[in-house]
Amino acid sequence: MDAKTTATQIRMNRQSPTYWRVIIDNPPLNVMGPEMVRQFQDLIDSIEADDDLRVVVFDSAVDGFFLNHSDFMARLEDLTSMPPGPTGLPPWPDSLVRLTRAPVASIALIRGRATGNGSELLLSCDMAFASKANTVISQWEVGVGMVAGGGPMARLPNLIGRNRAMEVLLSSHDISADQAEAYGYINRALPDTELDAHVDALATRISRFDKWAIAQTKRLVNTSLPPDVELGAGWEACIASLGRPAAQTGIKALTAKGFQRPGDVEIRLGFHLGELARQAAP
Q1: Which domains does the chain possess?
Q2: Which among 11, 106, 184, 276 has most CB atoms closer than 10 A?
């Protein structure tokens, strides 16, 4: 891991006692390594413990990236050795489950790539709004022989339907904000110049409402969610997939093209996954 992993990657700005902005800040690509996972756990602890909080908005300080895929330069053991969270799940799916259940409204403000972990975070939020011009969403894992670990197999079918979920997961395509809106992957795609004001106005409005009513409404809506065991199964499949020769070969080939470095591979990941598959075809 690089030195940045010891720095603050998740910043919390309290707009008011009832409204927090969470800023994801791990330049240059906003990848998620073990340290960011630990900081997410601390954040969820704070969200759950605050009696005044009613709404939290997730945003990014890194141009072009909301939240990216995992850090493949980090040691896998640093992640897999972390103890389970309060739900009994490993730390990343634990944080996502707890965010969805937390008695506050959660909103993803997406500008830039939401790749892998970023898609999983927006799926765990109660609402998601994205920049029409500057958003790309991706569950890219199958393209390198992996399985996603943060629960999209469990969450996406309920949100957008089984067949569209299969399209997103198995194609590893980059999804535009307009397509995500049409599928129901996000609430709305907005002109970039309107995105911040729209989310801020909505968050401010909700932050003035009664917390008990917010919490009880979420609890009742959440009865439609998949059980935790489905997210746990996805995590186990993800970790197992990383040990497969197909995944190791795919990640190595992608890295040789420029993966996890600033440049075209990270910007057009879906295109480059397709090129790798084409080149490997018999």
Answers
A1: 3-280 (3.90.226.10)
A2: 106
Q: What share of the chain is helix, strand, coil (3-state, %, to 5)?
A: 50, 20, 30
pTM of the model: 0.96
Q: Minimal CA–CA distance to 147: which of 219, 250, 227?
A: 250
Output the six-digit token pair for 119.
């898609």
Terminal alpha carbon distance of the chain: 36
* Per-residue model confidence as pLDDT tens for the chain (282 residues): 343 446 999 999 999 999 999 999 999 999 999 999 999 999 999 999 999 999 999 999 999 999 999 999 999 999 999 999 999 999 999 999 999 999 999 999 999 999 999 999 999 999 999 999 999 999 999 999 999 999 999 999 999 999 999 999 999 999 999 999 999 999 999 999 999 999 999 999 999 999 999 999 999 999 999 999 999 999 999 999 999 999 999 999 999 999 999 999 999 999 999 999 998 877
